[in-house]
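Sample 1 of the test manifest.
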Amino acid sequence: MIGYQFMGKMHSHAYRDMPFFFKTSVKPVLKAISGRKEEAVRQAAEEFGWESYETDWRKMIEREDIDVIDIVTPNHTHAEIAIAAAEAGKHILSEKPLALNVEEAKQMYDAVQRNNVVHMICHNYRFAPAVQYAKKLIEEGRIGKIYHIRANYLQDFIMDPSFPLIWRLKKEVSGSGTLGDIGAHSIDLARFLVGEIGEVSGMMETFIKERPIADLTGGLSATTDLKEYGEVTVDDAVAFLARFDNGAMGTFEATRFAGGNRNKNKFEINGENGSIRWDMENMNNLDVYFTDSPPGLQGFRTINCTEEEHPYAGAYWPPGHIIGYEHTFINLIHSFITGISNNEATAPDFQDGVINQKVMEAVEQSALNKKWMKIQI
Amino acid sequence: MIGYQFMGKMHSHAYRDMPFFFKTSVKPVLKAISGRKEEAVRQAAEEFGWESYETDWRKMIEREDIDVIDIVTPNHTHAEIAIAAAEAGKHILSEKPLALNVEEAKQMYDAVQRNNVVHMICHNYRFAPAVQYAKKLIEEGRIGKIYHIRANYLQDFIMDPSFPLIWRLKKEVSGSGTLGDIGAHSIDLARFLVGEIGEVSGMMETFIKERPIADLTGGLSATTDLKEYGEVTVDDAVAFLARFDNGAMGTFEATRFAGGNRNKNKFEINGENGSIRWDMENMNNLDVYFTDSPPGLQGFRTINCTEEEHPYAGAYWPPGHIIGYEHTFINLIHSFITGISNNEATAPDFQDGVINQKVMEAVEQSALNKKWMKIQI
Amino acid sequence: MIGYQFMGKMHSHAYRDMPFFFKTSVKPVLKAISGRKEEAVRQAAEEFGWESYETDWRKMIEREDIDVIDIVTPNHTHAEIAIAAAEAGKHILSEKPLALNVEEAKQMYDAVQRNNVVHMICHNYRFAPAVQYAKKLIEEGRIGKIYHIRANYLQDFIMDPSFPLIWRLKKEVSGSGTLGDIGAHSIDLARFLVGEIGEVSGMMETFIKERPIADLTGGLSATTDLKEYGEVTVDDAVAFLARFDNGAMGTFEATRFAGGNRNKNKFEINGENGSIRWDMENMNNLDVYFTDSPPGLQGFRTINCTEEEHPYAGAYWPPGHIIGYEHTFINLIHSFITGISNNEATAPDFQDGVINQKVMEAVEQSALNKKWMKIQI
Amino acid sequence: MIGYQFMGKMHSHAYRDMPFFFKTSVKPVLKAISGRKEEAVRQAAEEFGWESYETDWRKMIEREDIDVIDIVTPNHTHAEIAIAAAEAGKHILSEKPLALNVEEAKQMYDAVQRNNVVHMICHNYRFAPAVQYAKKLIEEGRIGKIYHIRANYLQDFIMDPSFPLIWRLKKEVSGSGTLGDIGAHSIDLARFLVGEIGEVSGMMETFIKERPIADLTGGLSATTDLKEYGEVTVDDAVAFLARFDNGAMGTFEATRFAGGNRNKNKFEINGENGSIRWDMENMNNLDVYFTDSPPGLQGFRTINCTEEEHPYAGAYWPPGHIIGYEHTFINLIHSFITGISNNEATAPDFQDGVINQKVMEAVEQSALNKKWMKIQI
């Protein structure tokens, strides 16, 4: 694994826990973790349970005892690492967004295809049992032709103007702001559940233009005593309209300025025969409505997706004994490892990463040019 | 009152009930109701408690015992009636949208100004105590500078393709579809709470293109045995992005194709110091979040707006004894009658109607031309 | 109508509004209202729309132009007024609890039976469309044999120790405290929905033993400047276990000391085939669960009981346009007036009042003697 | 660890995950797991990650490389194992209920005291961050003197009459039914948050008297092909009233016959200055109400207890990224291991187990004798 911040901890945990809950023919071994600061990465190795560490990621790729590279570094490094890993024949899991832009993303996808390695992008929310069950209901036609999706991803952790200028707020490191960090998740969920997006009209905004400069290597909780200010070069908030290839309408909004919404990743989908609602903050629940319920008995029902009928839920605890955020990663890792052991494609893969990136780039272009932009897949 | 369908019943009730709950120096007297079909309007007069009826609305305007004209007819008649009423010196309450287009709306506004009559447009949702209280909190600066409003008005009553082609689905009668019928309410609430909208980018869709032809004078529940089909000439759904003059971002969506949402008129507003959420289906409640709550104790609180601190609530029942949809009209009528008795302006008035119409027209133009449109007030 | 406080206003409103929403063969005429304080009752007559007033309730009973007596006075006067009204052949609606004790209640019931008048007790919550629909589902066997009811009626309006000693807090005037005032509603709902109660084990508590003395004729909002304190002689809170004749278990709790619960009248019923939940604060909604939903799709569904399938809802507004607390009274008055016009029994009637009183008396006895008490019907 | 069913899996997971999230001076090593069926326990050892296994629990106690005994066996074996383990100087974690009855529980408590080992009972719900935060608020006096607790623990997994006669339904193995299995959790939470219970009045019911006989060693999901039926000798449901030593009133209900409630462990506490609500199915949230909020702004606020101010939450993910059921065990194990490393008492310990058992026994006696029973601590 390359990187050791928040997502490094999360992925490490998922590799450790996955075999406890799932039987797979190959099991992950936590060989090595890499990071530039020796003391920090040494500590991370110990804390997260890795056998060894490296201070240069290229060493990881050279090592013959490593079959899988997991990329949890800041976004601007994804492409170089992934391409090198692919060339070395390693299977790759990359954090999202796949890259800084479509061009980079395509190069990554080319590399993994050329080298025939298993590749996956870490859109973990697909792997909530409730979301997987929503997918199943949609595929079975239970809500019919889809008319609408409205997806919001609302956070509030940078509302304070004294929150420092972390790497996620610098375009050269992160590519974009809320759009790539959380909007990307909504885009991925929408594509997973509704289908491909044909065109978008977007708007973006940076509410706080300058922030105190912090050590850019710091994680989410970086703090600073510095009095110097630097420019925020990414979006604080983004909203866009979308038209899907199948005719559905989409409205999307992602922001880090929605006070009181800590991690409100939610969507509602309306089809001709029913509707589905999901909200990450109560991620075990799925609200479902069917138009064919008897008159008088129609209403959204709240399903606690902890039964064996709900994908992945059977691996955990009895009905009603809920799971949390980290389990979306455990399920994703299960899918990734299964893909590796069967040498099968996984989803979402780097192709999804490319398409998600295309949607994001179209949103940015649209916001800049103030017109609708088409997405060419 | 001119018109006697769903809104005719609602307004009649509000005139009757208002004096029971509120003390006003002048009290409404239900002199006459008008409609083209004598038997139907006669019945309505009796059922709704009007002293007399007319079959030609021009008679109403000629009558000297009538001081106030309330227009609850289909949209394409609003302008002619309102202008005639204004010329005759009657005070006017008009249902929304004010007119078929901006041009008509302006003529109406000119007429009421020229004739110095009290005028009001029936955006009743402003008058829910929770919404009035939200306004108060915003005006007091409790949530600070506003970053976001996301407003949805979701219904599902025409999802069935066999639902007939009522007048609300014909552009020449209604002007627009969901946009003018329910989207207009969201626009009005946003302008009331956030401020004026500067530009919009919109999209519109008609999911069911043809429907069985029905008697166009029928109300919401019109049915038909006819086998003939006619074209739906208005939008089934509309969504748009908005930039407010004060820099806030808005996302709006109105649809009649969101299964399970009977009358889900809701919004969330995020400001620098807090957030506010409201949902018509639980209209007595207001969810409020403040960033200055102590760490650990931050969260949306649900206020049951039935206390004397909540505007209009003191006129009704003790705390926790909730009111309903009809009370928004009773409160609005109280405001209208108070305006008349004091010869003061009321809000929302025809000027609001004109501006709301401008926003709607900009949304339509934007959807047609696929570009952002500015609103000139 | 005899009495003119909170419930006087509520009943007056219901008599006025009922004919607007419902067609009935006889229509209520608001002949006279009665109260001891002339100025106050004169004002009430005007405000509530009564043709005349009396300062001695006996005059009301003597008047030949009055067919119906509605009793909304403090509880200790119900029996005398009702018996006199019955002897005079008037139909009677009485507020709950029916009387101070079972003995009085029985005398009232004897009187109305002997004189063959229509009688009703004002347990309005039965008349929420959602509750009526729950009754229908239960009668149709949709949830099967009932195992459980848990009913809470939680308020908080007297938590402040400086809240005055209103009549509802004096046993000689009110009979009991929370038990008779709000617990009685839960008992009535449970009997309506589940069946008769066989035995109870209860506990009662008075948390604030002394309060400032107020004018006992004051309503809910009585205030006082007096420095004198008097004893609270009724229960602040009551809880009891119940065994129903059909084997169901019941847990009941009523309190005025549950901070944040303004008028939380709620219940959940569990049967062998499903469950039902209701909460007055969202009174239009009914939550329903069926065990025969397909595996994976089981969950409580929230029905917005505003459709024509839901009893009484068709008389009001389109689906999703909610009604409020006062509509439970309008529906009840409709049932009462229909009973009078058909000379039919209504429900809940004085017999229900007697049985409810027996349950309350058993709870009080049980709390006093610390043992289970049986209810003999 | 002795036992390897549902709770065996859960505890194993918690021992593995705890050191990942928490720094402790000693770390658990998974030495051995024990069970009577060799093949099953061998598999469990492998699946759960134990170094070795035993088929006789006495061997575990003899082993010198084992310092801690974790008892997750059926209830009738707790006492014998715990006493033997204590005599051998092992620290002990026992599943709840502590024993079959008070007598056994006392012997266990005597044994651990006599041998000066660290002891803990596995009431995991105390360790939800939201519950810990509720405790903190109560201790700080934020809700003042407590008036009420109403606690429900509702499940539905044995509603189907064909569900087999598992060991939890046989009194000689489990001691009691819902009372000891889930009611015990509510009792423990109430004692933790409100204080000691002085007296109770209870009722118990067995709705399904006979069930198909299953292999009694089977876990929650035991199935059977047998046609033979056996008697259910424990309670399906229990409810009781309680008076706390500090004057608070309690109402408790635990049942496995509340359809639609998979694992609804919830409570509401009302104090003189505020209220607190919690529901395991949304276990990250705590609803809090304060009477000193400004008029107009009073209401229950929903706190997502995932911030660093919320006990244990800081060990996991960023705010809004929720945790699940299993984390209550991880937190509990952290507390247990910390207790061992510091040789300090932990809570809840065997003394709590004894007192909880006394409350349960009093409830049973009360239900049998139909009178209030006092609890002597």
